[in-house]
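Predict the 3D structure for this chain.
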Amino acid sequence: MLEQLRKNVPTLRFTLLVIVLLCWLLPTVTLGLYMGARVFSTVQEKTETALRSGAEYAQSTAARNVDSIVTLARDAVYDNQLSAAVQEYQTEKIPYEDYYLLVRDYLDRKYSREASCTFALFFRAGDLEKPIYTSQGYSAAVLFLQNGRETALTLCETLDTRSRVIAAGDGAYLIRNLHNTRMERIGILVIGLRLDAILQPLLVNAADWNAAFALSLDDARMGVFQAPEGAQGLYQHGDLLCYTQTATIGDSVLRYQIQADRHAVYREMDAFRLLMVWLFILFVPICVAIMIFVSRRIVRPIARLSEASDRIRRGELGIVVPMRGNDELGQLGIAFSEMSLKLKQLIDQSYKKEIALRDARIQALQSRINPHFINNALEAINWQARLNGSDNVSGMVETLSVLLNASLDRNERHLVPLREELGVIDAYLYFVGLQFGNRLTVTRQVSADVLEVPLPRLVVQTLIENAVEHGVAPAGGGHIDLNIFLRETELVVEVINNGKRLTDTDIRHLHAMLEDRQPADGRLGIRNVNQRLRLIFGEAYGLRFSLDAHGNTVATIRQPLTAIEQP
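Done. Predicted structure below.
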């Protein structure tokens, strides 16, 4: 019966899902469907229609203004007054002064009263260096001659009977070739344009929407077009709502784009935001209930699991969390407690096995080193006895005793004080001194505060022996420096010899041998030293070789000063 009741209890995942559906998903979907179906579509349609119709009306009005200017320029061809004046002057019927007055009077009558024109100017074909312009607008005409003359004359070579608006400096100008009835070019007409007057409907339209704009009339431009150059109609570009349209007016092309802030255009959306605020206010009680539920049924259990995990990380095994229940978190708490107890049991077993394995490996490595010392010592005694009789046998036996005691170490210690290791080194050097005599010198610099620092047995003696056998002996003699000092939280031992010179390639081979990537080749002792240091202190420590500035071989041992428990 109890098991059946547990099966009928809703799971935590199902409970949270129901709460989310009731509190958030259902109102959001309902509101979204309503806004999408009614408010959004209506607001967008009305706004876009108003923006489009306003822009189209403004452009059509501006197009009529442009067309009137184009018509004025075209009238200069059809009324034949300029053509007649040019003809009379070229046939020498009138002098230049009369010709000048006729042309200027025509330009003044035709264009000076036009609000859209700043000046009018006429170049006679074949005499382009003597332009005639209206009596008003002198400064504007001079600016054209300075900034746009060359552009206009070049353009007219290909313009034929068409007209075109160009931009030069800060001005805009309408350019048109004038022909007689025989379609012979008699000159060039230039009309200075007041774009702000001609295109005023477009500027007013942009101001009504509080929007930026861009327009172009042939080569004259105002503002910067957004989106691709050829885009037409209504479209969004980032945060802008753009409407672009192009109109052809005679030979000219007028392109206009209004660039309204999309957020400002759709200001009716503020009503939607206000509605959302009230919805959030109404949802506060539900949210509080959700928060209380989540805090009691999710946050607190997860916090307990997190705290227990942190205690396990700090080494406190066997933690049990007080979490029960039929939902996912309750089952997670039970599984966590069972896992913690099982983990403690496995780690206890694994730790004991690892300690035993470490001791066995260290003992095996040391046992491989011991016979090597004994063999060297006996060979030295035998050699000295045959050469010198028995006078030095007593001293040799005493030093042999020191070496044997250090090698055998009946107390089975893995670490010994540095002071004791130095005694072993003295004994070894006694034998070596008998062999090399004054061909070998040894200098030691040992800080007084390191004499009681524990280190593995025979590691320093092995480095001295390696320096003798592989450095000093092949060179027939040499010098060895023994430096032992503290560096921050580490004990550093340096053995430097100036015997046989090594290369960088030799150093790399030594390191490969230390890491078991190459055979020992007679250097089993230093490989065992490196392995012992890593077994005892960790992979970050051990033995390394290098070359100093003089090319001498440097063997360096690093080990931490942290006290290590003796097995």
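The CA atoms of residues 502 and 553 lie 7 Å apart.
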